[in-house]
Protein: GTP diphosphokinase
Amino acid sequence: MLYELLAKIDKAGNINKETVIKAYNLAVEAHKEQKRESGEPYVTHPVEVASILVDMGMDTNTVAAGLLHDVIEDTKYTYAELQAIFGTEIAELVDGVTKLGKIKYKSKEEEQADNVRKMLLAMAKDIRVIVIKLADRLHNMRTLRYMSPDKQKEKAKECFDIYAPLAHRLGMFRIKWELEDLAFRYMYPTEYYDLVNQIAEKRKEREAYIASIMADIVDKLKNASITCDIDGRPKHFYSIYRKMMSQSKGIDQIFDLTAIRVIVDSIKDCYAALGIVHTIYKPIPGRFKDYIAMPKPNMYQSLHTTVIGPQGKPFEIQIRTYEMHKVAEYGIAAHWKYKETGTSREGSKDSLDQNIVWIRDMLEWQKETSDAEEFMEAFKIDLFADEIFVFTPKGEVINLPQAATPIDFAYRIHTDIGNKTIGAKVNGNMVTLDYKLKTGEIVEVLTSSKPKGPNIDWLNIATSNQARTKIKAWFKKEKREENMQRGKELLEKEAKRQDRNFADIAKGETLEKLIRRYHGNSIDDLFVVVGANQVIPSVVVSALKEAIEESIRAKQNEDNEASLRNAEKQIEATRKKVKEKQSKSFFGVKVTGMNNVQVRFAKCCNPLPGDSIVGYITNFRGISIHRSDCTNLSSLNIDDEHRMIDVEWETESKELYSARLQVNAMDRPNMVTDVMGVVTELKIPLNAIDAESKKDGTCVVHMSLLIRDINLLNETMKRLRKITSVTDVFRIGNA
Structure:
């Protein structure tokens, strides 16, 4: 493995072999216990990644980082150790790749969006991190056959959604094409193999056709003293499939399955070769593109022309220099070859800066939306957007998305220019702001010294995410005060609807959480998002209301528990003073025709002096005294009626009798304390008490009292009903 890699490095000539060998040895040691899904030693993967990076022409540090890219994530080695061995730059590259995979998500959409955000941040810092990641993904796709079918489709979809578009945007077309074809094979295997077989059927015929054309072109260029390399590159399968789908054509109706590429020594030779090609074959009008005069933002330069070949079949020819060809293959990655060797290529720095501008534009856009699906849609549009090239009045070239308008142009120049725009001229003529710009036009923006700012309708006119983001940002800033006031009013209105005062519930940890959830720093920020219809008022109010009510319930429970602890002392004192009833032979009750008989009060109804009572002769426990309306008596068998005996209260009795009450109330602080206050005021001994706060905001208090007679019990219940928030008081049977 190492020898093949070193052979490539020798051929490349711009990479320090000692650093690479040191990185290889550490990778072997770090991954020695690990295996790939294929059963191969794991280290074969980073070696292949490094090999791909060498093919791209990447620098020493990037190739070394490729060998080490899984070391921090999958082995015992740390960032600090790599930094000590290889230096900060290599350690930073490895750490950057590692961080692209570390986070958990609520949904697949969120995961994908966050991965893209992290890649954009990594690119803005050092774009080589993404070059390594693309090489990593390319090798993983090459070995995808060892994964399960579900995993294959998942990885293929990621290629279509993220990695191939990124390679496209960075001008790394060789990587893009291979990623797309591999993803095509695993995502749509039936369609892929059908297409491969169809193309293979006429391959020899097609190759002979292209060979005759190339021979003709080489001969004519040689006569003009232009040396060149020429090849007939078959278009990749996914590109052909996409064209078949978009044009609803079969393979026999797609003629340009191969593109002829002519590579010459200089820009002068490019244009000379173009002229010669057009004398041999008739060009198709509107199918010529000059990417040399106006390079793409991803650094791509070439002349494209589509001509009518033999047998009336159209085919495409691309003409470029050797340096342009390197960039066309590997895009932004080619920059590091020139950087490493100290040479420069005209426009390379500007093109690199254009890529960084695009990355920063996307980062600015992602700050404006928290919606994962919306962000991913915008990201894909930005990656694949066809572009036009227009000029400023000073002759500067500005690239814009297809169908861009003067508004997009204005915001591309500067945010302030966009905000002050009142009109536009194209080629010296006034146009409307929704005019669709075309390549080659000269655009002049008219501005006002007293701007009113953008019109909300511009969001429907602008096509670039950059312009739309800046328009939204203006409205967000300018409308802040208005939205703040509106949001506050909406929340106050909603709180009133829920029987609350917003000022009373807008506090505490829940408010802080809500503010953070909606990316704010203060309650004013919360007002703004509500006023801008980004958050439903009822969601905010309900959350605050529930938090306050929960806090109140907790305080009430705390108060009730404190009151109950105080009651325990009173209960204990009562129990010491009261003699055990079971030791008494009578309790202020006279039994007709009997003296000195054991009497017990039934716990099912707890009769009090003043209640109508009746005696029941038990088998072993004397006479049980019940209230006449006791439900237990009504359920006796008819055979037991002879056990009933007349009894009456002693008029001079000073006994205390057990009575149990239930108090229902709306819960509030000090509820139990107020209930106990009534008992204490009437000097009634307290035998037991408990309280329960319920989730519906109510409270239930149970008390066992030692009462002299029914009159005192009625007075007690009367006073309890007068307590604030008490809804009901009643006597219950069991004590």
